[in-house]
């Protein structure tokens, strides 16, 4: 029969009394052997409850005692686990398998009969550890256990050095790891963190490492600039992480930057109507007062732009010419590329190993996924414009796994990202030596766009023409031969001893031989005389190609209508009927858009579903509670990226637009506001006038 409340309370009191008696019996002995400063407390990774723990038993302590010894206590993590098979015992040696552990790779090096007690060579994503403590999680209480059978949930102590977020524990190397936990909340809001006193930097780094272990949703990064960055799911999560960092993990004063909101840059099809919904091309053009559009569309000398947006550029030494065009990708393709970024990264690794002639076994399941991915791309890229586009995909970007595509559309070159499917072509052509330079230029261009140095999204670049002159081939081959000669000469110098007289004679003879070989090549004579060859003054040819490709992609992007993409939250609000109007007012003021409104059955509560830009979400929850007197509560989850419809570079050009927006057109442009804010944060040039038409202000009253 189930226990009554009185029986449960009586048993709890008995258990507490037993623990107290057990501790009292050993208290004097323990205190004499071990000073109180060495007592340890356990912190659970999920709930954060702290529990004072003695070596032989546990006792509930008062809050005052806990606060006195809090500074002296050492914190450690308890792993939250479930036993799926077998029995877990305290002191057992066991394998810790990370989420990326591959049993097939490990069994090539080791046999399946190996145990964690053996001395084993290093295997990627695998470690051995001893299970120090096993606990029964009883709310705030922690009960020590000796063993736990299958089907139970338990806490394990001593894994903080082996597990980052999640892992699989097994006594067998052949065990495949469980997939890591997937959370609906995607980290999107980032801040830079630094200590107020530079001497506390080590404590901050240690605290961020502990926070990364304790919170499954947070990400901790060190940027290229050296900043320590926290990436969190939203404003409330960010505040919770910062409080934990200050009060619990790092225990130092920290300075936090303003939240860094990510944006993306893209291009769209040319609009058919203007800002006043008039069809473009049928109005009479008037003189443009603002010259911003003209200034932006000015193209430097040596760059040709067609009416179709095809940009043609040459390298600085005029030995190679590139023609690049940018077109927007369909939304379905962009979404497909985002969802399969891990698969694209795997394809890139396989292609790299094939190009380096390394033997790499490809899993049949992975091959099937790649074929399915290719078929989906072919289904979504249909029409005359995308004919044979999937077979001509050269690379993805940025970082070779992003939502942008590079195509090649010129003759004499055969290479694509589908080499891992078995259709690799080993060819020797003039393009083969420098194709990595073109791909590198594309990666740089997609990593930072021209508007505000944010990554691109949903853009397809097509290389329509790539010509290399004979002089370019000769100069590159001569550069290679010079490097080889220089390496040989250096090796001769290194291996030639110069200690004795006879050795010095030998070295003189070798120098004469090397001078004879130099006299055979006229280029080396000119370099010895101090003259610089025309190809050398611009640097290596591969570097010129990278820079030219990057600039060509940027100009091709600027030849099309540019737009910013904002990160969007899905916002679910529960509110009563009397505050519905105030909820809509707050949403409209913050650029939100209501998608759905429905009434919960049997209540007077409405459930509103809306989308809200992440950039406008700070203070949203507080404001909506304040306006509705606490009768509405929002729930924000990152959803998708959405194009901001307004053009950040728009200026009025027609008579109707002048009449509607005025001469200065100084109404607030949302995209321009976001773009200028990002440019200011990054230290880029911002085109804005602080004072316009300034006049002297004075009172008109007569002096008395």
Structural summary, described in words:
The protein has 704 residues and is α+β, with helices and mostly antiparallel strands. Among the domains are: 78-170, Elongation Factor Tu (Ef-tu), domain 3 (Beta Barrel), CATH 2.40.30.10; 189-256, Alpha-Beta Plaits; 321-469 and 543-559, 2-Layer Sandwich (Ribosomal Protein S5, domain 2); 564-646, Alpha-Beta Plaits (2-Layer Sandwich), CATH 3.30.70.240. Helices cover 34% and strands 22% of the residues. It is built from 18 helices and 26 strands. Strands 2-1-3-10-7-8 form a six-stranded mixed β-sheet, with no helix packed on it. The chain starts with a helix and ends in a 22-residue tail after the last helix. The relative contact order is 0.08.
In a few lines, what is going on in this structure?
Residues 37-59, 494-520 have a biased composition (Polar residues). The protein has 704 residues and is α+β, with helices and mostly antiparallel strands. 34% of the residues lie in helices and 22% in strands.
Topology:
Blueprint (H helix, E strand, L loop, with lengths): L4 H29 L6 E5 L5 E4 L9 H7 L4 E9 L5 E2 L3 E5 L5 H7 L16 E5 L2 E6 L2 E5 L1 E2 L4 E5 L10 E3 L18 E7 L5 H14 L4 E4 L5 E5 L2 H15 L4 E3 L6 E5 L24 H6 L6 E2 L5 E4 L5 E9 L2 H9 L1 H15 L8 H17 L12 E5 L6 E5 L26 H13 L11 E10 L1 H26 L5 H20 L1 H7 L12 H18 L3 E15 L3 H10 L3 E7 L5 E9 L6 H8 L5 E11 L11 H7 L8 H13 L22
Parallel strand pairs: 1-3, 21-22
Antiparallel strand pairs: 1-2, 3-10, 4-9, 5-6, 5-11, 7-8, 7-10, 12-14, 12-15, 13-14, 16-23, 17-18, 18-19, 19-22, 20-21, 23-25, 23-26, 24-25
């Amino acid at each position: 029969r189930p226990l009554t409340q009185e029986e449960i309370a009586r048993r709890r009191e008995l258990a507490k009394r037993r623990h107290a008696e057990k501790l009292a019996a050993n208290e004097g002995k323990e205190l004499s052997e071990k000073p109180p400063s060495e007592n340890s407390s356990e912190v659970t990774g999920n709930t954060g409850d702290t529990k004072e723990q003695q070596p032989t038993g546990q006792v509930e302590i008062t809050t005052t005692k806990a606060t006195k010894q809090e500074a002296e206590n050492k914190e450690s993590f308890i792993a939250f686990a479930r036993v799926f098979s077998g029995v877990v015992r305290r002191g057992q040696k066991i394998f810790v398998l990370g989420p990326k552990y591959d049993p097939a790779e490990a069994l090539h090096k080791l046999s399946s009969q190996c145990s964690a007690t053996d001395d084993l060579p290093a295997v990627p994503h695998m470690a051995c550890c001893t299970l120090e403590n096993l606990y029964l999680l009883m709310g705030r209480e922690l009960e020590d256990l000796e063993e736990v059978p299958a089907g139970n949930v338990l806490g394990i102590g001593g894994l903080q050095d082996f597990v980052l977020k999640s892992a699989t524990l097994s006594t067998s190397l052949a065990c495949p790891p469980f997939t890591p936990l997937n959370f609906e909340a995607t980290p999107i809001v980032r801040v830079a963190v630094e200590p107020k006193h530079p001497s506390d930097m080590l404590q901050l780094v240690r605290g961020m490492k502990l926070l990364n272990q304790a919170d499954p949703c947070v990400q901790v990064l060190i940027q290229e600039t050296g900043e320590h960055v926290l990436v969190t799911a939203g404003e409330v999560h960010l505040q919770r992480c910062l409080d934990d960092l200050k009060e619990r993990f790092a225990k130092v004063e920290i300075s936090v930057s303003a939240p860094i909101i990510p944006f993306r840059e893209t291009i769209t099809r040319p609009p058919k109507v203007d800002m006043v919904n008039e069809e473009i091309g049928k109005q009479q053009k008037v003189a443009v007062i603002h010259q911003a559009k003209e200034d932006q569309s000015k193209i430097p000398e040596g760059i040709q732009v067609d009416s179709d947006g095809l940009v043609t550029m040459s390298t600085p030494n005029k030995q190679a010419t590139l023609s690049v065009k940018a077109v927007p990708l369909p939304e379905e393709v962009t979404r497909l590329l985002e969802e399969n970024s891990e698969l694209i990264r795997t394809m890139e690794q396989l292609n790299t190993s094939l190009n380096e002639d390394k033997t790499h076994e490809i899993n049949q399941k992975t091959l099937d996924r790649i074929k399915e991915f290719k078929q989906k791309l072919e289904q979504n890229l249909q029409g005359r414009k995308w004919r044979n586009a999937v077979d001509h995909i050269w690379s993805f970007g940025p970082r070779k796994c992003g939502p942008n595509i590079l195509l090649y559309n010129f003759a004499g070159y055969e290479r694509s990202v589908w080499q891992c499917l078995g259709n690799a072509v080993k060819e020797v052509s003039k393009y083969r030596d420098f194709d990595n330079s073109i791909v590198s230029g594309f990666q740089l261009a997609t990593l930072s766009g021209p508007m505000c140095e944010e990554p691109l999204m949903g853009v397809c670049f097509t290389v329509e023409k790539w010509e290399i002159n004979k002089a370019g081939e000769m100069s590159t081959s001569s550069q290679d031969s010079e490097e080889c000669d220089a390496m040989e000469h250096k090796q001769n110098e290194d291996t030639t001893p110069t200690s004795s007289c006879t050795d010095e004679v030998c070295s003189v003879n070798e120098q004469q031989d090397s001078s004879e070989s130099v006299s055979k090549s006229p280029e080396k004579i000119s370099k010895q005389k101090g003259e610089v060859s025309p190809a050398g003054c611009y640097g290596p040819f591969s570097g010129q190609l990278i820079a030219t490709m990057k600039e060509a992609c940027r100009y091709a992007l600027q030849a099309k209508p540019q737009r910013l993409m904002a990160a969007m939250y899905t916002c679910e609000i529960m509110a009563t009927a009397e505050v519905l109007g105030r909820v809509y007012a707050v949403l409209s003021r913050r650029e939100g858009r209501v998608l759905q409104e429905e009434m919960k059955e049997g209540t007077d509560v409405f459930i509103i579903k809306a989308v809200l830009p992440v950039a406008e979400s700070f203070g949203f929850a507080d404001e909506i509670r304040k306006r509705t007197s606490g009768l509405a509560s929002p729930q924000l989850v990152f959803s998708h990226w959405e194009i901001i419809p307004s053009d950040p570079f728009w200026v009025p050009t027609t008579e109707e637009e002048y009449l509607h927006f005025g001469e200065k057109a100084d109404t607030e442009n949302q995209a321009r506001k976001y773009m200028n804010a990002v440019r200011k944060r990054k230290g880029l040039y911002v085109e804005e006038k602080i004072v316009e038409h300034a006049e002297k202000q004075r009172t008109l009253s007569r002096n008395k």
